[in-house]
Amino acid sequence: MSKPVPESLTLEAHYLHADRAMLGVLWLCLLGALGLAAWHGTWLQAMLVGGGTVLLAHSLYALIRGSLLFRCFVAAAFMVMAALHINQAQGTLEMHFSIFVLLAFLIIYRDWRPIVVATIVIAVHHLAFYVLQMQEAGVWLAQGVTFGLVMVHAGYVIIEAGVLVYLARMSFNEAREGEVMGQTVARMIGDGSGVDLTCRANMRSPMLDSFNALLDTLENMVSGLSSSMQQLGQLGSSVSKGASDLRQGSEQQQDKTRYMVQAMLELSQATADVARNAADAARASSEADKRAQDGHAAMQEIAREVASLENNIAQTGEAVDGAAQLAIDIDQVVDVIKGVAEQTNLLALNAAIEAARAGDQGRGFAVVADEVRNLSQRTAQSTSEIQDFISRLQQASESARSAMEQSRTSVHRCLQVTQSSAEILAGIVSEIASIVGRNAQIATATEEQSAVGEDVATHLHEVEAVALANTAEAVELDRLSAELEKVRVVLMRDAAQFRTGR
Fold first, then answer.
1. Which key words tag this protein in UniProt (predicted)?
2. Contact criterion met (CB below 8 Å) for 145 and 118
3. Which CATH superfamily is domain 240-496 in?
4. Which of 128, 146, 148 is nearest to 87 (CA)?
5. HSE (side-chain half, CA atoms, 13 Å) at 197
6. Nearest to residue 292, comparing CAs of 431, 498, 192?
7. CA distances from 386 to 126, 330, 338, 391, 394 (A)
8. Longest CA–CA separation in the chain, Å
9. Contact 143, 90 (CB under 8 A)
């Protein structure tokens, strides 16, 4: 609720100031009257009327200054001075301008009533002095005056009075508004300990209504400002805490980033080592592939040689079988020879018997028969040896044939193993070729990974720089939060000087 504003003394102070100014104007009018007195020798009028008016004004100033009555007296005194000047100048038309000038001075009071009093006084003066001048009473209104001229003068005075009344009322209203506004402001300020925004001007006018609306707005703003300051304090605390957390997070991020940079550098180094090893493995695999291909070709050559050896062994076996068959044939022939030798021995024995029977005649024949018998015995003996040799030869041939068969079987197995080995080597060659390709891919990939690792390390360095910058910004934000809190405290202290109804 608005608090009523007590009546101000501002206009009364203005009236006092204006009264002092009007006394000065009356003194100027007295000086003017004294100056005009030298023109036509009207010293007595100047001293009595002009001096008396000024003395009376000072007396009333001491008693009723600042009052409406004194203001009306000043208005009447101004017109008396104007009438004095006109009379001293014997109705010179130019002296009538003093009426308008002095009427204009009255607007300083910002009161329309002295203007009306002055208008009435000067109107009475014109009518009375017109009559007196017409009766030649020794007073002057205007040279060659007529009633019509008096009416013209009266009309101009009324017009000016109307304008001045309007301006005075406007000035009074403005002064009153200023007074109420000033008193409202004084009430708001009070003893200077604060500003009471609940005060309102108790006078209705567009300006004061706008002023009250401004106070409403200010009250709302200050109330909102106090609330905002509290929220700002909470926000400042949150910002300060956030800045502290950000600083700690930035420091942790910096540590983690530094660790990641070191890890990425080590990873890049390890990847580079892997790339080199993969390249070495690729070269070794390529060499192994070449040697495996050579081994595969050698195994194929061995397989061909073993197959040829198997063929040769088979032929040799066949030859041994043929030799064994020949030994059998020879044994049969030896059996025939042996039979012939036995028969020869029998014949020789029969011949020896017959030779013995013949006596000396058969001695020569006996010698021959004996030689034949010896020959048949040696033949039989030789055939026995031959049979024994042939028997051993058959046994050797059989052993050779058996060994050949075993060799053939072994060579066949060796051929199978060689062929299997060749196939295995062919698979190994294919796998080694695949390994060579994969090693090459691994080498390329690890080189690319090493390059990417170095790039990541570079970016991590940049992230570390950003983390450092964030840390600095967090420190600055923390400092700004502290400064913001100081400003908030000052604003809260200032806002506390404004009292609101909310």
1. Membrane, Transducer, Transmembrane, Transmembrane helix
2. no
3. Methyl-accepting chemotaxis protein (1.10.287.950)
4. 128
5. 19
6. 431
7. 205, 9, 10, 8, 12
8. 256
9. yes
Q: What share of the chain is helix, strand, coil (3-state, %, to 5)?
A: 90, 0, 10
Q: Which of 279, 235, 154, 313 is nearest to 484 (CA)?
A: 235
Looking at every residue in the chain, the average pLDDT score rounds to 78
**pLDDT of amino acid 306:** 66
User: Which pLDDT band, with edges at 50, 70 and 90, does 477 fall under?
Assistant: confident
Ranges 78-82, 100-104, 174-178: which has the least confidence: 174-178
The span from the CA of 157 to the CA of 163, in Å, is 10
Spatial distance between the Cα atoms of 500 and 489, rounded to a whole number of angstroms = 19
b/e per residue, 147-174, with b = 16+ CB within 10 A? eebbeebeeebeebbeebbeebeebbee
In this predicted model, which residue has the larger pLDDT, 72 or 391?
72
- Which residues, in sequence order, are bridge partners of residue 3? 199
- DSSP output for 69-100: HHHHHHHHHHHHHHHHHHHHTTT-GGGGHHHH
Q: Which 8-state DSSP code applies to residue 282?
A: H
**pTM of the predicted model as reported, rounded to 2 decimal places:** 0.46
> Is 66 strand, coil or helix?
coil
Dig out the tokens for 355 from the structure: 């030779």
240 phi/psi in degrees, rounded to 5: -65, -45
Cα gap 217→225, rounded to integer Å: 12
**pLDDT tens for each residue of 15-68:** 999 999 999 999 999 999 999 998 888 999 899 999 999 999 999 999 999 999
Q: Which residues contact 29 (CB under 8 A, 6 or more apart)?
A: 50, 78, 81, 82, 84, 85, 98, 102
Token representation of residue 337: 């020879």
- CATH 1.10.287.950 domain range(s) in the chain: 240-496
Using the predicted structure, report yes or no on whether residue 3 has a pLDDT greater than 60. no
Q: d(Cα 244, Cα 250) in Å, to the nearest integer?
A: 10
pLDDT tens profile 411-460: 677 767 667 776 776 777 677 677 767 767 776 776 777 677 677 768 76
Q: Span 479-498, mean pLDDT?
A: 72
* CB 109, CB 66: distance < 8 Å: no
Question: Is the model more confident about 78 or about 502?
Answer: 78
Query: 297-321: buried (b, 16+ CB within 10 Å) or exposed (e) per residue?
Result: eebbebbeebbebbeebbebbeebe
**Cβ of 426: how many Cβ atoms within 10 Å?**
15
- Is 94 within 8 Å of 32 (Cβ atoms)? no
Rounded alpha-carbon distances, angstroms, from residue 10 to 63, 190, 206, 349:
20, 16, 20, 200
Given this model, what pLDDT does residue 7 score? 44
Residue 244 CA from chain centroid, whole number: 19
Q: How confident is the model at residue 500 (pLDDT cuts 50, 70, 90)?
A: low
